[in-house]
Amino acid sequence: MGGLVSLLGHYLVVGVHAVGRFTLLLGAVLANWTAIFKSRGRVAEQMAFVGVTSLPLIILTSIFVGAVTTWQTAYQIKNYVPMRYLGTAVGRAIVIELAPVLTALVVAGRVGAGMAAELGSMKVTEQVDALETMAINPVRFLVVPRVVAGLIMLPILTIFADLIAIGGALGVSVMFLGVPQETFISGFKLFFKISDLFAGLLKASIFGLIISLVGCYQGLGTTGGAEGVGRSTTRAVVVASVSILIADYLVAVLLFRQ
Amino acid sequence: MIDLIGLRKSFDGQKVLEDCSLHVERGETVVIIGRSGTGKSVLLKHLVGLMQPDSGQVLINGENTVEFNQDEWQQARTQFGMLFQNAALFDSMPVWDNVGLGLLEHTRLKRHEVYEIAQRKLELVGLTDVEEKMPAQLSGGMKKRVALARAIARDPEIILYDEPTAGLDPITGDMINELIVRLRDRLRITAVAVTHDIASARKIGDRIYMLHDGKMVGEETPASLDQTDNPYIRQFIRGEAHGPIDTGLATV
């Protein structure tokens, strides 16, 4: 019993310590936000890494997200709800929930891991120390461009994901479920609100912040050589993915009042 | 110029530096020798604020840097250059960007002006036509020289050398030593070097200290090194397994 309490206490201390350090990093990013003007080149580089190079993967996953959502929704509502509401249900689910969350999870696996690995190897090879000895603040130089890129590019990727997933949904409806294109689109428009789209994009921005900040936090906290880089990379993906789902719930509670 | 007074540092209860003191005059090169893992690099990192001591003082030009906040450190670090053990070049940037990064970040110089300065600094360390190469395309010795060019890019008052010849063949190692001596003689830079390479210590040092068990246990000059009556230094420079420095061999 004593051992269990001691173990729980240890994890509590480690957890509080990590939250404290993460908050300090967030504070340092906010304090150094003006670095984006000086670091335009690095911000553009990171935007290309987060956005452009993730696009093929987002296109591929979004097609299937739209397709499977439509198939499953049709399976669940058949015999209860007319198929003219298929576009309504699928469209809102994609815009509000599926496109932002699944895009963020894919980007967390690709970009969050990449950031943690890159900064982690910079840390263990003393490149971060070298920056500090050159009086260059690592948060300003390394973290701010990545966080800005995450904040901007996740909503843009989500817009692509929205469009492509809806395209996938439409394709399945027309080709395999016998729902005419006009019926699907009129159903989609029926209850669609532009505020739903903005809510989805706001969530995407928050997820972008989480992915980049967690990736940088894990990377800069790396110790212990190549093995440490591997650990940080894994942690970046796990922590970002779990945080995205928790943040998703919290934002839903705040934005979509029952 | 530099004074360490009663420096103490532990990691997870393990003492690394214990009442460690050192004095460095302006324009001289002090070398700290000692076995691997005795805290030489830790000591060096305290000088430039990469680590904070548990207690003690680090005085640079009479100012106690232990009390510095982040902004004061940012200011103080502009007078430092540091050569890292494994060069620590930024592997995503070409050589000239590595050398000129400090200038790009801290001055209003244009990129082509920084490029020219980087070229001059690279020439000073004997490198030409490498400006556009990436660090991965360079040999170990070339990386060290690029790192040296980066360390002197902003004409620092103080340079810290962490194992400047580690991992290099004897000839390349001697070339790095030669460059360090030239920098000292030409630019009158104050320097602190840590190494376990005795040939390097003899060549670049004005004074040589030995760090053992977290303390400075002796001081010599290159001229007096061979006649030292300090048993620690004598054992170290002769490379003997038996002596006052416990190697653990007797217990095997």
Account of the protein in words:
The complex is a heterodimer of chains A (258) and B (252). Chain A is built from ten helices and no strands. In chain A, helix 3 runs parallel beside helix 7 (138-176) and helix 9 (194-220) runs antiparallel to helix 10. Chain A has helices spanning 2-31, 35-38, 40-50, 55-77, 86-124, 127-133, 138-176, 181-190, 194-220, 225-255. Helices cover 86% and strands 0% of the residues of chain A. Chain A has one domain. The longest helix of chain A is centred in the middle third of the chain and has 39 residues, at 86-124. Chain A is elongated. Chain B has helices spanning 40-47, 70-76, 95-106, 111-124, 140-152, 170-187, 198-204, 231-238; strands spanning 2-11, 14-24, 29-33, 55-60, 63-64, 80-83, 158-162, 190-195, 207-212, 215-220. Chain B has one domain: P-loop containing nucleotide triphosphate hydrolases (Rossmann fold), CATH 3.40.50. In chain B, the strands form two sheets. Chain B has a six-stranded mixed beta sheet with strand order 6-7-8-3-9-10, sandwiched between helices. In chain B, strands 2-1-4-5 form a four-stranded antiparallel beta sheet, with helices on one face. Chain B is an alpha/beta fold and 252 residues long. Chain B is built from eight helices and ten strands.
What is the compact description of this entry?
The complex is a heterodimer of chains A (258) and B (252). Chain A is an all-alpha fold.
Biggest sheet details of chain B:
6 strands, mixed
- Judged by helices, strands and strand pairing, the structural class of chain B is alpha/beta
Indicate the structural class of chain A. mainly alpha
Average pLDDT of chain A works out at 93
Domains of chain B (count): 1
- CATH C-level class of chain B is Alpha Beta
Give the DSSP E fraction of chain B (strand runs of 2 or more residues): 15-25%
Number of domains of chain A: 1
Strand order of the largest sheet of chain B: 6-7-8-3-9-10
Under the CATH scheme, the architecture of chain B is 3-Layer(aba) Sandwich
Percent helix range of chain B: 25-40%
Question: What oligomeric state best describes the polypeptide chains here?
Answer: heterodimer
Q: Average pLDDT across residues of chain B?
A: 90
> How many distinct helices of chain B?
8
Contiguous uncertain segments of 5+ residues of chain B = none
